[in-house]
Amino acid sequence: MNYVRFAKSMTAFWAVLALATAVSRPAVAAEDAPQSERPNIVFIFADDQCFQTIGSWNNAEVQTPHLDSLARRGTTFTHAYNMGSWSGAVCVASRTMLNSGRFVWNANEIWNRSEQERQEGRWWSEYLKAAGYRTYMTGKWHCKADAEKAFDVAKDIRPGMPKDTPQGYNRPLGTDDHNWSPSDPKFGGFWEGGTHWSEVVANHSEDYLAQAAGRDEPFFMYLAFNAPHDPRQSPQEYVDRYPVEQIKVPENFLPLYPHADLMGCGRKLRDARLAPFPRTPYSVQVNRQEYYAIITHMDAMIGRILQAIDDSGKADNTWIFFTADHGLACGQHGLMGKQNLYDHSVRVPFFVVGPDVEGGRKVDQPIYLQDVMPTTLDLAGVEKPQHVEFQSLLPMLDGQPSQYDTVYGAYLDLQRSVRTDHHKLIVYPKAGVVRLYDIQADPKEMHDLAGDADSRPIIEDLFAQLRQQQAAMNDPLDLSGFQF
């Protein structure tokens, strides 16, 4: 199917209808359009899930049968990125970009506005509401807006992370360190309230889909897991699937990252304190064991959601999108969190399943994960609002190239990056350091080429591209005097 032509035809139809009936609505006039023409949309959102954690795609060590099924049924965008963050809580920036449609620094401006300015006619869900969709939400929100106003139905709206405990940090100190258990409810966290938070998302999702099955209007569901964010807790049966001695230490493991303090990932960073300094292979194995276990548990809950979609009787007219707000290092490069610009922390899984979407296809050109927002507006026939900067993926599903020549990355005023299809340049302004990687030959970003004399022209070219990206994105960091 030519999705672009379909969406444009629907937009034109509804625009004519609006003029004929003299009804004025913000950005779209679709309420009287034929219900069958507007697909249902289910958005499933993970938290902290690195792109390297899909069993059938790139990591046989991880058991993800239901995510594997999405990959088989639909199209995988293999190079989906988050732009970064103005905050140590990277998910805040990612989710504000997602729901506002704005690039990182323009989204930061929205974050700092009043609630009324943020809310009125500016959120993803509001545009779909105006198009006649009934909207549902559960799970992690982490935006400066009232989810109960943004959605028709919203339950168990979660904060940035489950409440943690001191026992969850600086561990394990050795093989005899058993002060923490990811399956023990006494530590609260994901167990707070008596039911694991991932199971709560699945419970509400099933309820929502049962409700939607009996209604005529199309639906939009925003189903946001807190998993696999720390504290990475799951039932013991899932932990037992990953014997710690069988967990592989990442090939790019380091005991300490050489520029950690000056790029904002030193001992003061909360995420960095999850494992001991210096990192040990065993501590990384245990942290990754728990990471994989909570992903597999979440995968089981996603399986319940997929079954509920089938049971609703509306699967044939439903689009499913799965992605995550950003990735996670979890021991790679000596880092534990996501406050860095390596691919393991900015690159995420991204699957699209829908009517006539090609199954088993992989698209290797770059996108941003927040492109899902305008994609769904496109599907719903909503004219793209002027402030939305991300791009619909429907043209790429039709075989057209990505609209992004480079991938931009930022973290506070401490890190910047630019990525092409061949190289990545990372800049640490406070440290006065650049790092250069040939990502085709070195996808795990293990060999810094910045010190090679032959690399100077590449660095100069990428730095110029970075400055261009900064200007286009209203990046407030001045790199004009940076020396490399």
From TrEMBL:
Record-linked CDD domains: sulfatase_like
Gene3D superfamilies membership: Alkaline Phosphatase, subunit A (3.40.720.10)
E.C. designation(s): 3.1.6.1
Domain of life, per lineage: Bacteria
SUPFAM superfamilies attached to this UniProt entry: Alkaline phosphatase-like
Matching Pfam families: Sulfatase
Signal peptide: 1-29
EC main group: hydrolase
GO molecular function terms attached to this record: arylsulfatase activity; metal ion binding
Cofactor requirements of the protein: Ca(2+)
Keywords, alphabetical: Calcium, Hydrolase, Metal-binding, Signal
PANTHER family reported in the protein's UniProt record: ARYLSULFATASE FAMILY MEMBER, ARYLSULFATASE G
Similarity comment: Belongs to the sulfatase family.
Listed name of the protein: Arylsulfatase
